[in-house]
Write a structure and sequence with these properties.
Largest sheet: none
Helix content: over 70%
Structural class: mainly alpha
Shape: globular
Radius of gyration: 22 Å
Order of helices and strands: HHHHHHHHHHHHHHHHHHH
Strand content: under 5%
Distance between the termini: 50 Å
Number of helices: 19
Number of strands: 0
């Protein structure tokens, strides 16, 4: 026997115990990261240690909690591999002159006054066509960050416009994994889900563009200049990142980035976050919190608000786009059927309030990835990713008023037209 405890020795956590690691994480991140700007990795490991101690008190062995961590990391491996490949891609595009070319022509074509709108539009179209917010941020987004730096557009709003555009296109693209997973988790149909998403996604996107337009009026025109990035040894660039040596310090800082090693800090944050989330799941503490929340759902409006809160909470706890859709989706799908609400209502909520909010969570995989490739901390672009949280506010309004909350038409909602 490899386990030190038996299932009979394990007890179901009370709500107070289940909330203890969450309170510890909130305190550590709120004070340590928000006030003292300590390293997120250390704070997340400390929160995972608290969760581990609570799990140990419930009768779970270290091996069992370690299995939860490994399972959590296993689910994130595709995203980790993408992150490492994007690090190499950025270095290769820098060394080959691809991104410097985009910077050069971008400086000629993009007015500072319309930069935020242009960046959001370009990233929206790219992500919609390719189905990847990460790929968009790591390629087109990097180029636009260089243009913003050259035009002296503040980097926080610039990154916010890029993130908002990339995730708007991603969440409405049939080629993306996020909108494909949300219907699977809730029992809805993909195309019904995408059409239903338009009610929250498009108004939020248009409102964000309007804000970007008026914000951009403050930015003036600047002189344009040409950047030339010399070739470097490809192997070194892919590993350690491209290092420009143009003789101009500002240009060198702009062009020197990328490489696998540039993603290591991001990877450590992700592993620490998944350690916390894995223990919370394996010990049942996350399920207890969500189960208690669902008891508040007695009517359609309260159920919808519960789904919103559950998706947001799961995104904050796990930092995973997938888990923030799968856990609330599977947990709340029977309640939506019981109240005769269409599954596409729930699939829209878990995607908008879970997966699309994750890049705004500093310790999430998406947050640390976007922060790494764009070169700005999450807290710098979070206030300016308007479309991401405008959609959440719209869903709260829809939940209270009942507007666009569709009724269930058939038992099998995986069929088109449900």
């Amino acid at each position: 026997m490899t386990q030190t405890t038996t299932p009979k020795e394990q007890s179901k956590p009370s709500l107070l115990l289940a909330l203890t690691p969450l309170a510890a994480m909130a305190l550590l991140l709120g004070v340590g990261y928000g006030v003292f700007h300590l390293q997120v990795q250390v704070l997340l490991i400390a929160a995972a240690a608290v969760a581990g101690l609570v799990g140990w008190g419930l009768g779970y062995s270290w091996l069992e909690m370690q299995e939860g961590i490994v399972e959590s990391v296993r689910k994130a491996l595709p995203a980790i591999l993408i992150m490492l490949c994007v690090g190499m891609l950025i270095a290769a595009w820098m060394a080959s002159g691809t991104i410097p070319m985009l910077l050069y022509y971008g400086l000629k074509l993009v007015s500072p006054r319309f930069f935020l709108v242009t960046a959001c539009l370009a990233c929206s179209v790219t992500a919609l066509a390719t189905g990847t917010s990460w790929g968009t941020a790591g390629t087109v987004g990097v180029a636009f960050m260089g243009i913003a730096q050259a035009l002296q557009v503040p980097l926080g709003p610039a990154a916010g416009a890029i993130v908002a555009g990339a995730y708007f296109g991603d969440k409405l693209s049939p080629f993306s994994d996020i909108p494909n997973l949300a219907p699977v988790a809730t029992g809805a149909n993909l195309y019904d889900h995408l059409r239903h998403m338009l009610w929250s996604g498009v108004p939020a996107w248009l409102a964000g563009l309007a804000v970007y337009f008026f914000m951009g009026l403050r930015y003036g025109d600047l002189a344009l200049w040409l950047q030339r990035a010399p070739l470097a040894e490809l192997a070194r660039a892919l590993s350690a990142g491209f290092r420009a040596d143009t003789g101009l310090a500002d240009v060198d800082r702009l062009l020197s980035r990328g490489g696998i090693m540039s993603m290591m800090e991001t990877l450590l944050i992700a592993l620490a976050a998944f350690s916390f989330g894995g223990i919370m799941q394996r010990t049942g503490m996350l399920a207890v919190v969500l189960e208690r929340v669902t008891r508040l759902a007695r009517r359609a409006w309260s159920l919808a608000l519960t789904a919103i809160a559950s998706s947001l909470a799961t995104a904050l706890i796990t930092g995973s786009s997938y888990l923030s859709m799968l856990i609330p989706g599977e947990l709340l799908a029977p309640a939506f059927r019981r109240l005769d609400l269409a599954a596409k209502n729930l699939s829209r909520i878990v995607e908008e309030c879970g997966a699309i909010i994750v890049p705004l969570v500093p310790w999430s995989m998406a947050g640390v990835y976007v922060s790494g490739v764009l070169g700005v901390p999450v807290r710098a672009y979070l206030p300016f990713a308007f479309q991401n949280y405008f959609a959440v506010l719209l869903l709260v309004l829809y939940s209270v008023t009942g507007f666009t909350m569709a009724k269930r038409r058939r038992d099998d909602e995986t069929q088109v037209g449900s």
